[in-house]
Design brief:
about 220 residues; 3-stranded antiparallel β-sheet; 7 helices
Length: about 220
């Protein structure tokens, strides 16, 4: 069975021509949640949120109190790409058997560290799996769905008594270890994204701040 997806990547406009002509550079370093690789979102709205955050951080002193979508896209772009591989080539941490592999590796690594040592970051462990333990021979992608908070809050209900979601929308990221599987890179033009994003700001204002208040 194949994994056949169009995926999305936010980047600064200065990177676009290089990526279109020569492909993506890998993000490297243990601070990246899924280790070294090329990162994509499965949902375009999360790529959109990523470039909004980048824009706000870079231009905070110049932000005006109204929606600056056109200004954002002057500086940042969303690229789309197609990925089609055998699902067996994905280390899918949303699957129990793959998550068990990951946790077992973590325990093995921690057992060799002094009990007073610092915890190993997720990115460092995944880099170790791929660079030292042969995972690069079996897998081309690491996939995980992030949820914030990571667990339900106490009573087991996703919706609380005020009809507000207690668990934020799932954000599936993939980290491509083998760039040769990335095909058909192009600029992605968003449709109806303002309406979708506004819905997120209403339901999840602590993660997706209302645009008029923040900007």
């Amino acid at each position: 069975m194949n994994y056949n997806k169009v995926v999305y990547h936010g980047t600064h406009k200065s990177n676009v021509n290089r990526i279109l002509n020569h492909g993506f550079n890998k993000s490297e370093g243990d601070r990246h949640w899924l280790g070294d690789g090329i990162y994509f979102f499965e949902d375009e709205i999360h790529a959109y949120h990523w470039i909004l955050e980048k824009y706000v951080k870079k231009n905070n002193s110049n932000i005006k109190p109204y929606y600056l979508r056109k200004s954002v896209f002057k500086d940042y772009k969303i690229l789309r790409a197609s990925i089609k591989i055998d699902k067996n080539r994905i280390l899918d941490l949303d699957k129990t058997n793959h998550y068990i592999i990951y946790v077992s590796a973590y325990k093995e690594v921690m057992s060799e560290i002094d009990e007073h040592g610092d915890p190993v970051p997720d990115g460092a462990l995944i880099n170790l799996l791929f660079n030292k333990m042969g995972f690069n021979e079996d897998y081309d992608i690491v996939k995980y769905t992030f949820r914030f908070p990571k667990r339900l809050l106490g009573d087991g209900y996703i919706i609380n008594g005020n009809n507000k979601p207690k668990v934020n929308p799932p954000q599936t990221q993939i980290c491509v270890k083998n760039p040769n599987i990335i095909k058909d890179i192009r600029i992605h033009y968003l449709k109806d994204i303002d309406k979708k994003y506004k819905e997120l700001t209403i339901l999840f204002p602590h993660i997706y701040p209302p645009l008029k208040k923040r900007w």
